[in-house]
Specification:
The protein is α/β, with parallel strands linked by helices. The chain has 2 domains: 18-138 and 153-159, Rossmann fold (3-Layer(aba) Sandwich), CATH 3.40.50.1980; 208-321, Nitrogenase molybdenum iron protein domain (Rossmann fold, 3-Layer(aba) Sandwich). The protein has 11 helices and 8 strands. The chain has helices at 18-34, 52-62, 85-92, 105-113, 138-142, 161-178, 183-207, 224-229, 248-261, 275-284, 306-321; strands at 45-49, 66-70, 96-99, 118-121, 215-218, 233-236, 265-268, 287-290. The chain has a 4-stranded parallel beta sheet with strand order 2-1-3-4, with helices on both faces. The longest helix is centred in the middle third of the chain and has 25 residues, at 183-207.
Length: 324
């Protein structure tokens, strides 16, 4: 749908390298040979999403009117994403980019430098808070000079169905404004998605209302919003950074807390090594299980989309917390 069909202008990306031009040539050749459509080369509203939760929203809200591509491949840890020359071209040719500011520093920079007319920051549609055991989120570790007011804020808003619904409503309005010819369908699709998220919220409310304990341990502090929403307490081994190593003092503290609060399970996730979780669980005499932050869907996921994985998360929490 992007009628401009422009590449990268010097004002948008100061250092256009030969690699970028080569990537564009390769991308065009592949599209011509295979019939595949890259972002910006279709007759639909072309949306580039930063990672799975954003792509899921774009697909559900846009329906048949959008062509969605994700910058983060299935199975790739989104926090570690670095934008390639090929992905820069894809971003430049899109009609809109949907991302979550302060989660992926390389995406933030690419979006800021791009000429994409419609830039949709999911974080702007809800409130962010500080969670976890450490101050400083992923973006703060990489670039403390930008967005200092966001440093340490938890970006995992999609794991709270209520906040995710707020984001969905904001994205829907942004699509309506950017592609007014299909505004009625975007409103209809947004309402349907919000309805499903409201129903999921009720499932969690009822499913976690009566449990033996309210405390759970995770390797990665991704579930602060979910815990807050349903009256639970998340204790994370690694804080907001899934790849950091816990201190010996932190591990000892978790072991004492587990005994005091009747914790049975240490949760780990599918896109990050389970080594730390299994070590802590073995030392404390606990079992391990998966609690998926839904940063991507792979063949290891306990479901095929956001809703089915969230339902699997609910069952895992009910088992670990001892639903009455």
């Amino acid at each position: 749908m992007n009628v401009r069909r422009r590449l990268i202008r010097n004002s948008a990306v100061p250092a256009v390298t030969a690699l970028t031009l080569t990537a564009l040539s390769t991308l065009s050749t592949l599209s011509a040979c295979s019939g595949a459509s890259a972002a910006g080369n279709t007759d639909k509203f072309d949306v580039v999403a930063s990672f799975y939760p954003m792509a899921f929203l774009a697909e559900r809200i846009g329906g048949s009117h959008v062509h969605v591509t994700s910058l983060t491949r299935p199975g790739q840890e989104p926090h570690d994403l670095e934008i390639s020359a090929r992905e820069t071209v894809r971003l430049q040719e899109s009609d809109a980019v949907l991302y979550l500011k302060n989660l992926q520093p390389s995406v933030d920079k690419a979006v800021a430098q791009s000429e994409v007319k419609t830039k949709i920051d999911a974080a702007s549609f809800t409130t962010l808070e500080k969670h976890g055991n450490e101050v400083g989120g992923h973006a703060a570790e990489h670039d403390t000079s930008e967005n200092e007011e966001l440093a340490g804020l938890d970006p995992h808003i999609w794991l709270d169905p209520v906040r995710y619904a707020q984001v969905a409503q904001g994205v829907g309005k942004a699509f309506e404004k950017a592609d007014p010819g299909h505004a009625a369908d975007y409103r209809k699709n947004t309402a349907a998605l919000v309805g499903k998220l409201d129903a999921l919220d009720e499932q969690f409310k009822k499913g976690l209302a009566n449990t033996r304990t309210k405390v759970f341990i995770t390797t990665h502090a991704a579930f602060g919003y979910l815990a807050e929403r349903y009256g639970l307490t998340e204790e994370a081994i690694n804080g907001l950074d899934p790849d950091s190593e816990p201190s010996a003092a932190r591990v000892r503290s978790l072991e004492k807390m587990a005994k005091a609060d009747g914790v049975t399970t240490v949760f780990y996730e599918t896109l990050v090594s389970d080594k730390t979780a299994k070590t802590v669980a073995a030392d404390a005499g606990l079992r391990t299980d998966v609690l998926d932050p839904i940063e991507g869907i792979t063949d290891k996921s306990r479901g095929t989309d956001y809703f089915s994985v969230q339902e699997a998360n609910l069952k895992a929490l009910q088992k670990a917390l001892g639903t009455k």
